[in-house]
Amino acid sequence: MNRKTLVVSMLLSTAMLTASTLAFSSDDDEKWGFLNRWFGERKHEVGVAPVENPQYLEECGGCHFPYQPGLLPARSWTKMMAGLEDHFGENAELPMEDANAIEAYLVKNAADHSDYKRSRKIMKYMQPGETPLRISKTAYFIKEHNELTRRMVEDNPEVGSFSRCESCHTQAATGSFEEHEINIPGFGGWEDD
Length: 193
Ligand code: HEC
Ligand code: HEC
Known about the structure:
By secondary structure, this protein is mainly α. The chain is built from 7 helices and no strands. It has helices spanning 3-23, 33-39, 54-60, 74-81, 96-108, 117-124, 139-145. The model has no long low-confidence stretch (mean pLDDT 87). One heme C binds at residues 71, 118, 135-136, 144-145, 147-148, 152-153, 159, 162-165, 167-169, 177-179, 182, 184, 190, 192.
């Protein structure tokens, strides 16, 4: 082995060692982070797919934040669409044709049909037979929000409920829920350590 080959192979093995250390680090979120940084994370896969369906925005975004379909599995949307006459205590019934079109949109883009990071996480923490109707009752959601206090949510006049994603996640409408974008009204940003 000449000197040049030796240097090259030493550099290569250092790189491989670093890569494998990172790959086997215990933090699930960052496990493949180095690959994303090396090969350029595809930005659109960070959060959940944004809503680009005007009919959905109009019919399901009138009373609350238009939750992206990638926040619940298809079976949840099917169940929800079958019970709109009693939708969390409200009547949200739609003409059959509109309901069918919206259901097809929700099912097609549901968490179990999506490659986006947050959709995959929601499915990863969900039991196979579980059909939650609330995003805020999924195991992944609960795990991510367990450090928040009543004063920040229920007793906070500018929030009121976990269902109001957009009151804390300033970029929620784009499908992004990154930590640095959080601003809890009256409390400010969020630093997890
Ligand atoms: C008439 C008003 C109204 C309309 C229209 C409406 N919703 Fe809702 N929705 C509610 C209320 C009220 C809640 C409960 C919010 C709370 O607990 O703070 C809710 C909750 C939800 C939640 C659960 C949020 C959570 O906590 O995770 C989902 C998902 C949802 N709606 C989807 C839809 C979809 C899909 C449509 C369109 C087919 C729709 N909504 C239309 C009133 C409405
Ligand atoms: C009262 C403010 C508040 C509300 C309302 C809220 N969140 Fe959050 N959310 C947070 C905070 C704070 C964190 C960061 C928790 C942590 O990292 O420890 C978080 C974390 C997350 C994460 C993980 C982000 C990451 O980088 O790990 C997702 C996804 C998320 N929220 C989605 C939602 C959705 C969807 C809704 C509505 C159904 C919602 N949140 C409602 C405050 C809120």
